[in-house]
Amino acid sequence: MSVEPDITVPAAPAAAGSPPTGTAVRVGFLRRFRRQRAAVAALAILVLITLAAVLAPWWTLYDPAGGSLSDALSGPSGGHWLGTDDLGRDVFTRMMYGARLSLGAAVIAVGVAMAIGLPLGLIAGYAGGLVDSAIMRVNDALMSFPPLILAISIVGFLGAGLTNAMIAIGVIYAPRFMRVVRGAAMAVREETYVEAARMMGAPAHRIVRRHVLPNILSPLLVEISLSLGFAIIAEASLSFIGLGVQPPSASLGSMLGEAFRHLRDAPVYAIGPGVAIMIIVLSLNVLGDGLRDSLGRRAMR
Amino acid sequence: MLRLLARRLLMSVPILVIVTFVVFFLLEIAPGDPARLAAGGQAASAADVAEARHRLGLDEPLWTRYWHFIEGLFTGDLGQSIFSGQPVLSAIAERAPVSLSLMAGALIVAMLIALPAGIIAATRPGGIADRVVMLISAGGVAMPNFLIGLLLVLVFALNLQIFPATGYVPFEQSPARWFQSLVLPSVALGVAAAAEIARFLRASMLDVLDQDYIRTARAKGIGVRGVVGKHAMKNAFAPVLTVLGLQVRILLGGTVVIEQIFNLPGLGSLTVKAVFDRDYPIIQGVAISAALVVVVANILVDVAYGYLNPKLRAA
Amino acid sequence: MGLSKPAAGPLLEIDRLSVDIRGEHGVARVVDEVSFAVGPRETVALVGESGSGKSVTSMSVLGLLPPRITRTRGSVRFEGRELLGLRSGELDRVRGDDIAMIFQEPMTSLNPAFTIGEQIAEQVRCHRGVSRKAARDRAVEVLDLVGVPSAAERLKAYPHEFSGGMRQRVMMAMALSCEPKLLIADEPTTALDVTIQALVLSELRALQERFGMSVLFITHDLGVVAEIADRVVVMYGGHLVETGRTAEVFAAPQHPYTEALLRSVPQGDTTGSRLWSIPGAIPTPEAMPDGCRFHPRCPHAKPGVCDADEPPLEPIGDGRSSRCVRREELRLSGIGGDAGGTGALAAEPLGGSVLPGGDRK
Fold this sequence. Notes:
The complex is a heterotrimer of chains A (301), B (315) and C (361). Chain A has 301 residues and is mainly α. Chain A has 11 helices and no strands. The relative contact order of chain A is 0.16. Chain B is mainly alpha-helical and 315 residues long. Chain B is globular, with a radius of gyration of 24 Å. Chain B: It is found in: Cell membrane.
């Protein structure tokens, strides 16, 4: 986690009480986080998996797209740790590439969700009033769709494919970010030092950047972690159905889809990608919970 | 209670309006020309496309079309399938019972697992049972439902052959086989919900068991079952209801995947087929009905909340 | 009932009761070898500041302490039957039936999710096995008894629709619904304001006479004790420090802590004047001082005497006992009818308002 260079002690007027600076908030946060052993372990696992997946082209032994049909659906062996798929491709290698794709897709999807949710949440929370209610009604409406059905509908109109799937997942998780950011922004807005800054005539964008953003960083981190987990599952679901990543590329979800079609002949095929998804999502959840518990003062909910 | 219901109904109106707009607007983001698609694709002549455009009302301005769309909704006219020509409403009505039974089944499975698990975990926090429950539920939350479905098919349908792997038998045809055909899908869909609900119930129960009125109940000598099952439960269940409301959304979405795996002819498989066919009216119809189900479920949750928490009734 | 014990023997007999509670800082003994008895139709007040162990003592009678973190030793006998170590199913037959309990917080002690009628009737049904209708009738009866107006209509009301004083009456109605032989009242009036306090107390007294039950009354307020109790048991830091008949204890306390508690009782018209209170607080079980547990706050503490050995609880005749080594040298002042005029505090040993030796923190 890189620390932003921008965060310095704000020049708040003396009367405004002690403003919690971004750095101060973060030091306590990190200290509390380090005490959460399960969360730290989850973070380590995630880093490890991410490295293994990102670096897959440089260390896996097989071509993820090539194989010989004579090898098709062979069980695990010394040569193929998790066996081969219906086209004779090495499942372990494909799994690493699949994880790479799944992780990448989840990150981009969450990025999309943040790009939509963050500004809208900030505006709603900071402006309040009519703007807030209008944005929140749209938010409620989006939250009324079953997430997967909305995602499928969006993909249905945009067309199947990984990019569209990522956009769709981003849209369905944007309300979560909107809510978190709005709540935090509303809380910060009421603080005396922000009120003071406002009365001193500081422009809104500076107050938001100096005071609001640093304070929503921690809850945002929690939301990112949890949403990544959801996004992985959502992408896997879409790809499982065949609406996400298109062959010959594979994500963990589309691999499971293939495995499902060969469940009778080669049940082992499902183990690798299945376990990989579980570990990744579980780690993200544990990490998210740990982060939330480290939040302390500005607890969510 | 009635006032609570009325207020909630009123609050849903703007949400539903936005929902319809979102669904209507989906058509605008679609690449390609729906009129051409309706006219028969690339091969269609310009005249055919223009005719289709006029027939579908696509030559009118956005707001007019939205107005027609809303009018249609109120008269039950959700358009027709581009492919089969079947009215969207009847296609949905045909498929809805399957998805709704699946969802109900999943909810039942979830409650059957979550209630005892959450209560046992909460009554002995830190004990072995508690740790096992927490561990399994952490895994259950992280496990995508299609993975569970896959496992169930593998174990119970392919290996043990206790349940049919796929397919659906309508209730009217044979209630027993209808039930059988829904067991595995319901479990696959319900496990994640069970995990989530169990975790919430545990937390909420722990909170409630610490309250003074629980001590009062214990001092009354009404027994553990009365204290936990009645006094604690009614209070602890209120926050769980909120989760239950959220779960309805997720379960409804989950039916799509589960129906694919178990080859059930529900709304989910209808949607997936519609997506591959680019059958836009069907997709729109399903999206709106799904949102409607969620809105109704949320109202029910709020009313139930009022029942559990008498203080809210007056408000 | 006089000083000679009634032939039937005590109703409740607590014998060398000790309670250990596991907390953040390890196991702490919050009640240490406490023994006292409550006779039939007798009202005993268990008195002390918060942290004295009085509430824990009362809760252990009905086994209401969380079992995972508490260990109870000694004996609690009710009508000769040992209650400690009973399985919770067996205990449930005693709870609410022979022994009922009301608690300090009327605002939170009733379940917000059930009507008060249901909460009372449930207990009657459970112990009496009567029909719903009969249980409901009984609920109306007891609500009437404790002075809840238009009881029949109020059955369907929820706790949040009642005031604090009314809720405490509901609690009382609930406790009385099965005509218990012993009522344990854990600071039932503390959370109420003074006028309602007096009402609830007089109600309680009337009911006690009517039902002929015994009452174990837990309080930190000796003013309340004077109105209600036959005998007083004073606790400090988990110890029983003094016990005796109310009038005698009030007139001539035999322990400096009792004296200090008496001093903090408001006398007559106290408007405008500030109440005196004992400086400092009861030490936590982990930080219990050597010697007499009260000595750091005691105005009569003598170095080398009071901080050396823990004084034993000594019987001093007439059913009284005290845990003070300097008891015989001190002449502690009390209040009350026969000894000290019309409720004025004799100020002899306490002197000024600032206590020597008391750690003011």
